[in-house]
Amino acid sequence: MHEADIAVELTATKHVSFQRYFFPPEDSVQVFINRELSLVNDSILTGKTASTYFVAHFSRPPINILKNQHETILSFDTTDEEMLYIKVGISAQSTNEAESFIKEELPEWNFEQATIESGRIWNEYLTGN
After folding, report:
1. CA–CA distance from 41 to each of 17, 55, 57, 103, 125 (Å)?
2. In angstroms, how far is the first alpha carbon of the chain from the final one?
3. Span 80-103, mean pLDDT?
4. pTM above 0.90, yes or no
5. Residue 14 contacts by C-beta under 8 Å, 6 or more apart in sequence?
């Protein structure tokens, strides 16, 4: 697999990024996150940077997670499902607040609807309406 074989689409709400990755059908792919993360359950991770707390929701559980002091590597089976969605909520206060932003601002996994809503909000902001 080459990087050119991977497509990425991004959208966001005020506090949540929404990412969609398209992978070629392979046995598995790996997602590298340059942070040590805490595992909440099989598809939710939490972490913190110097000033920001975050919660990451994955549309499906990884088949393997490798963690060390500096990074977390998640492996996903892409034999049957080549698409992976990731939602990342951020907060300056806590992971609980970051989680609440995901639940309030982006409760569904509907990427198209999230993109439409984001475009509507930006258009209102930019036109002053």
Report:
1. 20, 12, 10, 16, 37
2. 46
3. 94
4. no
5. 101, 105
